[in-house]
Amino acid sequence: MMASRGTGAVLSRAARMRQKLQSALEASALEIEDVSYQHAGHAAVKDNANETHFNIKVVSPKFEGQNLVKRHRMVYNLLSDELNSGLHAISIVAKTPKEFGS
Amino acid sequence: MASTAASLRLPSPPLSAPAAAASFSSATTLRFPLRRRGAARPLAVAAFKKLSEASPVPIPPESAQPPLDEEALPPKPGVYGVYDAAGELQFVGISRNVRASVEGHRRKVPADLCASVKVSVADEETPDRAVLTNAWKSWMEEHIESTGKAPPGNVAGNNTWVGAPQRPPDLRLTPGRHVQLTVPLEQLIDRLVKENKVVAFIKGSRSAPQCGFSQRVVGILEAHGVDFVTVDVLDEEHNHGLRETLKTYSNWPTFPQLFVGGELVGGCDIISSMAEKGELSALFQK
């Protein structure tokens, strides 16, 4: 992380998403997959857009006792800046450590 | 290959493909083209039972408990023929999910036309479309050879089996952009989701969703036989401003969005996962 800052590189959207989700959700597992290429012809994806579609799998103790709508909202809320700046859709799998283990 | 597939109008599951008359060969009045297209694939057909070899399974009424077991009517790709109460073959179809298709017929078609079904499933889990088409052709030919006529449900113009289902049109929030709204859009949304039990806000129309996720949700709801209405969030003429207002109303940033009884149930991921776990039926019975 320091290295990338040192070289002045801008963090990718995927990297920013990872940081936000990891720290806020204390995720014990977190997979972020860029599937934008699958939506290249998509009407809503404008010319130069990349990093528009992601699959996210996240395991967090904070999902305990929350229904799916609430879990997805937690993820969406954490990524609201991204959703407002070109992130078009994310597919979310949100589990608690207990559900993930079983 | 691609052009061949595109010109065949097959009742893909769950019976959502309305047959287009334009795709029929003029040489036949049948719903599917019987015309040979290049080299047939005899090997593929050999994998299926013949119509005369398959044994009929009674179709229980919708509410029957326990439902017909999956061994007899498997949720797998294959060819099937539905018989009426008198034992006459009424319709031959192919499907990626024979069980779902037959259940769809049972809901749509009068019960006396849907008494029993013969099924032959494909060997592969995801057979090529041509494999299924060939199986359909050979069942049709077998039946026509022995009786001299096609099953009534497969004759063009008969919409009993695969005609476009009676779908309500996409709902519109306003009569058009030129009309001054007297109530805020948010209130219109609120009224709409409370007055309609199941509402899907989707991108595109119900018959032609413009987004894969919207399409999947529509497909799942139709496969479950759910009575639902749709609203096209891309319709700028009638639903101008809906996308932004709905995002705030539901506190949900993406589409599609499904509401049941005025409450947000979720988007595509949640609906898909509930469908997989078998939780959807319970939701719609509430």
UniProtKB/TrEMBL annotation, chain A:
The record's listing under Gene3D superfamilies reads:
BolA-like
Main location (coarse class): plastid
Q: Please, one GO biological process term?
A: iron-sulfur cluster assembly
Question: Can you say where in the cell this protein is located?
Answer: Plastid, Chloroplast
Pfam families linked to this entry: BolA
What is one term from the GO cellular component aspect held by the record? Answer: chloroplast
Query: Cross-referenced InterPro entries, in alphabetical order?
Result: BolA, BolA-like_sf
Q: Which domain of life is it from?
A: Eukaryota
Instruction: Say which family it is in.
Output: Belongs to the BolA/IbaG family.
PANTHER family tied to this protein = PROTEIN BOLA1, CHLOROPLASTIC, PTHR46230
Q: Per its record, how is this protein called by name?
A: BolA protein
The protein's organism comes out as Setaria viridis (Green bristlegrass)
Automatic annotation (TrEMBL), chain B:
* GO molecular function annotations of the record: 2 iron, 2 sulfur cluster binding; metal ion binding
Give UniProt keywords alphabetically.
2Fe-2S, Iron, Iron-sulfur, Metal-binding, Redox-active center
Gene Ontology cellular-component terms for this entry are: mitochondrial matrix
> What does this protein's UniProt record list under function?
May only reduce GSH-thiol disulfides, but not protein disulfides.
What this protein is called in its record is Glutaredoxin domain-containing protein
What is this organism's lineage? Eukaryota, Viridiplantae, Streptophyta, Embryophyta, Tracheophyta
Q: Where is the Glutaredoxin domain?
A: 198-265
Record Gene3D superfamilies: Glutaredoxin (3.40.30.10)
Q: Which InterPro entries match?
A: Glutaredoxin, GRX_PICOT-like, Monothiol_GRX-rel, Thioredoxin-like_sf
* Record-stated family: Belongs to the glutaredoxin family. CGFS subfamily.
